[in-house]
Write a structure and sequence with these properties.
Blueprint: E1 2-11, E2 14-20, E3 24-29, H1 36-48, H2 57-60, E4 67-75, E5 79-87, E6 91-95, E7 98-99, H3 103-106, E8 112-115, H4 120-124, H5 127-141, H6 145-163, H7 170-210, E9 216-221, H8 228-234, H9 236-242, E10 253-258, E11 261-262, H10 263-266, H11 269-291, E12 296-300, H12 308-319, E13 327-332, E14 345-351, E15 354-357
Helix pairs in contact: 6-7, 7-11, 7-12
Bound molecules: adenosine-5'-triphosphate and magnesium ion.
């Protein structure tokens, strides 16, 4: 899958951008604060309608303007001309000039995997970051998953609101519990299956980057031990005390271990970085396996944190994508240009919100 064209208007520091991209490896070079990450953010936004920096749409509008536009031509099994306009008053999203009403109809038009500074949270951060990683991948691969997640979260919110009352309506609590269990069990099954499939991909990816026999293991640790309904019933007394739902997929953990030890407490910074990259590489491999074509890789400033050996291990993994007519966009400054990169490269200079092809 690839992005053949990108058009931006008043997007961050890009007043206007009209670019065409071939398949292959694109390196975006520039000094700090020129717009390299903004460009990756634009591609990611076209794929997911979100920012990977956690920014809201209002922050994306170029200072002093009232709206932004991001559009592109995505080439996969089909051709999709995407147009996304956003202002506080009006949003418009079309594919091939047809308006999109439900986000689930849109996701998959463009598929990306992003590697960025925030990935450190996957290893160091709270369990929520790892649940989100699993949920995003399931959303990208299972059509019904997002709906399931929304129904679960809705039931959880209602149930918790009820638990906060002094004397909750028990019949109502029962009905929210049933809704919670029905959707929660499906979430658990989907996450368990996914982790089983990801686990060998992560182990292998990590080994290739580290070029050492370090073992990166992941394990799904669901909050539900045996049976969701039974565990909920058992937690009733504690629930009354805490006034919130104490078991369920919203409390799941994905355990990361390096050579059998918890990665967050045991691994070095470089090893943690390698682990985070291996998780993202596995996401890309898994998506490629399911959809039959590699997602676009968006790589923001990750090389700098790896030593020469690990960089040399990573480069072949990311440049492999271009053999299958995939696409990679990678940012770097002139100083940290990865010398290990060679072969067929497209180089772009990013300077104050403009993009120029370099010879
Ligand atoms: N809404 C906005 N309107 C105008 N400019 C913005 C907006 N949001 C961010 N910027 C500016 O965009 C510039 C470039 O940001 P970006 O994060 O893309 O830099 P970068 O090239 O990735 O730099 P670095 O190498 O430091 O990561 C910054 O100077 C920032 O202030
Ligand atoms: Mg940047």
């Amino acid at each position: 899958m690839r992005l053949a064209k990108l058009k931006l208007r008043d997007f961050r520091n890009f007043r206007r951008l009209d670019a065409a991209f071939e398949p292959g490896f694109h390196v975006l070079v520039g000094r700090n604060a020129q717009g390299k990450t903004n460009l990756l953010e634009a591609v990611y936004l076209l794929a997911t309608l979100r920012s990977f920096r956690g920014a809201g749409n209002a922050q994306i509008i170029r200072h002093g303007q009232k709206a932004f536009f991001a559009g592109g031509l995505a080439l996969g099994q089909t051709e999709s001309e995407i147009r996304h306009y956003w202002s506080a008053a009006q949003r418009k999203l079309t594919v091939n000039e047809k308006p999109i009403r439900r986000i689930t109809d849109y996701l998959g038009t463009l598929r990306t995997v992003v590697f960025c500074a925030e990935d450190a949270l996957l290893v160091n951060g709270p369990a929520k970051a790892r649940r989100r990683f699993l949920d995003l991948l399931l959303t990208q691969t299972q059509p019904g998953y997002l709906g399931l997640l929304h129904r679960y979260t809705g039931a959880l919110r209602s149930r918790n609101a009820l638990l906060r009352r002094d004397s909750p309506d028990l019949a109502l609590l029962d009905s929210f519990t049933r809704e919670l269990v029905a959707n929660g069990e499906k979430l658990i099954t989907a996450r368990r299956d996914l982790v089983k499939k990801l686990s060998p991909l992560i182990r292998l990816g990590y080994r290739k980057i580290a070029a050492k026999p370090e073992d990166a293991g992941i394990a799904y640790a669901p909050s539900v031990r045996e049976d969701f309904a039974v565990d909920l019933a058992k937690s009733r007394v504690r629930e009354q005390r805490h006034r919130t739902t104490l078991v369920g997929p919203h409390r799941d953990e994905l355990k990361l271990a390096l050579d059998g030890q918890p990665a967050a407490q045991y691994a070095s910074e470089g090893q943690k970085r390698t682990f985070a990259i291996a998780l993202k590489m596995a996401q890309g491999d898994y998506l490629a396996g399911i959809h039959g074509s590699a997602p676009i890789l968006l790589i923001d400033d990750v090389m700098g944190e790896l030593d020469a050996g690990r960089r040399a291990g990573l480069i072949p993994l990311i440049s492999r994508t271009d053999q299958a007519l995939g696409q990679v966009f990678m940012t770097c400054t002139e100083e940290n240009w990865p010398g290990e990169l060679s072969g067929n490269l497209h180089r772009w200079q990013v300077e104050q919100g403009s993009l120029k092809r370099m010879s």
